[in-house]
Amino acid sequence: MIKYISLLFLFLIFVYPAAGSADSITENTEVSVIFNNQDIPDEAWRTPNPENILYVDLEYGRIIIELYPDIAPNHVARIKELTRQNFYDYIAFHRVVEGFMNQTGDPRGDGTGGSDLPDLVGEFTFRRSDLMPVSLTGSKQLGSKKIPVGFYKALPVATQPIVQAMFTRDGMVSAYGLHCKGVTSMARSTEPNTANSQFFLMRDIADHLNAKYSIWGNTLIGHEYLTKIKVGSKSDNASFIPDIMKKVRLASDVPDSERVNFQILKTNSIFFENYLSNLKETEGSTPDVCDIRIPTRIKQEKQ
């Protein structure tokens, strides 16, 4: 028999009340609940493509990131290429700012380095049709405008209303990823088309980066490790000893026996709608899109 561990306690408490003798466990300060996989039908979950799953192993644990080649194809291709060269192994988090982000990907460790590959043209926004559905959660004040926001798969995005697609030449509307906690984005200089190998993982929300940096992924598992990474930089403190990425691999390049077998709640499902409704009831209002964690479940074989 197969059971699942949910990584989001609220989802189970408010969408599916605990039944019978379900056991509760606490791990890494996050509460998890073991529940029977029949509580939520399998069709409500999706299994990510291992080709688009990145494992980032730290001293503290593993961060698992989903890549979005349909949003930033060239940046995702670059991350994959460098990962397969083992380029990111033992690379430092050379600049970590509390309440902001963890920057890494520089072999020099001082923010001036990169790979031997050419710089990339920015992919700050993307075009989408109704074949790339966004599950809206509300609107968000971004700059001078209130813009519809929601999720494309598990990535928080802002988008023009899809109804506007009927008035555009390509039958699409513009959208862009949001720099919420856990989102991964490419670093660059002040020039827009200078991203190369450096990237950053968000420790918190940074709306001022939206549509100015190329987002290529989002953290699905291991959020708790994002704020454990040591804060500082050598430019501020010459004696600073940064944390490192011990190993970075694509799930597709890891033997099946070593993969983390997990699924993500489909954001275009009625179960996600129920989840949002219960969050709204609990909080008094629908949380900011950046504060909504998409439920995941890790498959565990019964012992």
Characterise this structure.
The protein is mainly β. Helices cover 12% and strands 33% of the residues. It contains 4 helices and 22 strands. It has helices spanning 9-15, 73-84, 223-226, 270-283; strands at 2-6, 24-27, 30-36, 45-46, 53-57, 62-67, 91-92, 95-97, 101-104, 126-128, 135-142, 145-152, 155-159, 173-177, 183-186, 199-202, 215-221, 232-233, 244-245, 247-250, 262-265, 296-301. Mean pLDDT is 88; it is low at 1-38.
Provide a short characterization of the protein structure.
By secondary structure, this protein is mainly beta.
What's the arrangement of secondary structure elements?
Blueprint: E1 2-6, H1 9-15, E2 24-27, E3 30-36, E4 45-46, E5 53-57, E6 62-67, H2 73-84, E7 91-92, E8 95-97, E9 101-104, E10 126-128, E11 135-142, E12 145-152, E13 155-159, E14 173-177, E15 183-186, E16 199-202, E17 215-221, H3 223-226, E18 232-233, E19 244-245, E20 247-250, E21 262-265, H4 270-283, E22 296-301
List keywords for this structure.
303 residues; Cyclophilin; 4 helices; 22 strands; disordered N terminus
